[in-house]
Structure formats: C-alpha cells, structure tokens
C-alpha cells in the first residue's frame, strides 16, 4: 500500500463530487429539453392537424380527378369500339349517308377534344395549386407558432426562477 498522506483520498472524493455534479447537470439539461420538446409539440399540435387535414383534402382532390379521368378514358374507349350491329345492317344506304352527314355537322359544331381536355387539365391544376397553397400557408403558421413558443419558453423559465426566489 502506498501512503499518500491523505492526498489520494482527497483526490478521489473531489472526483466523486465532480462526477455527481456533472450527472446532476446532465439530468437537469435532459429534463429542460424534454419540457421544451413537449411545449413545442403542444403548441404545434393544432397547426400539424391543419396541415394533415389540408394534405388529406389535396390528396382526395387528386384522387377524384384521377378517377374522373379514368372514367372519361373508359367511356372514350367504349365509344371508339366498332359497332358490329351497324356493320351487319347495310340495307339502307340513303339513311346511312344522311347519318354520316348529320354526324359530321355535329362534330364541326363541337369543341375539339383537345380543347376540352386542355380546359379540364387547367381546372385540375388550379385545384391542386390551391390545395398546395393552403398546405404551405398552414405550414408557415406552424413554423411561426414553433418560433414563438421557443422564444417565450426561456422567458417563462426565467420568470419561474425569480418567483421561486421570492
């Protein structure tokens, strides 16, 4: 055994004291961080809900637009399919000629399919843009709320400390 004249004992007790103080400081920091995280989560909950709601409505709008487009495509394919019954009946050539003339007249009066499709596409993009704009607006509000909560949290903590001292 080495004889340190009490120096080793003093050093070990000092080390113990330092490690205990450090552990207590770490625990305090951890506790404060947890409180801050919970406060931020509480403040941002309504904004997060709004963002989720806006995202859901945007998703629903896109889904319905896609479903509508699919239906229109299916209907167009159905119309484009050749009609077997019409091919089988070749009895009235005059009636057929009149029908063809009528159809041609109707088609010239209608808008072109490309123009119709372009209009529908423009309407869809407007809907999606509006939804995206709403989501961004809610996200901005959420970030502002978070920043405000973070700014106010240290002030509240300082006020609590001064109240405890009195």
Instruction: Report the biggest beta sheet as strand number plus sense, adding barrel if it closes.
Output: none
- Give me the number of helical elements: 4
User: What string, H for helix and E for strand, traces the elements in order?
Assistant: HHHH
| Beginning-to-end CA distance, first to last residue | 53 Å
Spans where pLDDT lies below 50 across 5 or more residues: none
**Estimated share of beta-strand residues:** under 5%
Helix vs. strand class: mainly alpha
Name the shape in a single word.
Answer: rod-shaped
Mean pLDDT: 78
Helix content: over 70%
Query: What's the Cα radius of gyration?
Result: 37 Å
Number of extended strands: 0
Give a written overview of the molecule.
By secondary structure, the protein is an all-alpha fold. The chain has helices at 7-80, 84-88, 93-109, 113-165. Helix 1 (7-80) runs antiparallel to helix 4. It is rod-shaped. The two termini are 53 Å apart.
Task: Provide a concise account of the structure shown.
With 166 residues, the protein is mainly α. The chain has helices at 7-80, 84-88, 93-109, 113-165. The protein has four helices and no strands.
């Amino acid at each position: 055994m080495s004889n340190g004249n009490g120096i080793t004992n003093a050093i070990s007790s000092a080390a113990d004291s330092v490690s205990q103080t450090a552990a207590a400081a770490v625990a305090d920091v951890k506790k404060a961080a947890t409180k801050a995280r919970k406060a931020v989560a509480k403040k941002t909950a309504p904004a997060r809900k709004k963002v989720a709601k806006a995202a859901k409505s945007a998703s629903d709008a896109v889904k319905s637009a896609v479903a509508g487009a699919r239906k229109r495509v299916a209907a167009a394919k159905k119309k484009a399919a050749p009609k077997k019954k019409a091919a089988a009946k070749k009895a009235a050539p005059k009636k057929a000629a009149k029908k063809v003339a009528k159809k041609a007249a109707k088609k010239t009066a209608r808008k072109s399919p490309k123009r119709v499709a372009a209009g529908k596409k423009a309407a869809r993009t407007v809907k999606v843009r509006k939804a995206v704009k709403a989501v961004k607006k809610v996200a901005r509000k959420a970030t502002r709320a978070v920043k405000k909560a973070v700014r106010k949290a240290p002030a509240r903590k300082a006020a609590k400390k001064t109240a405890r001292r009195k």
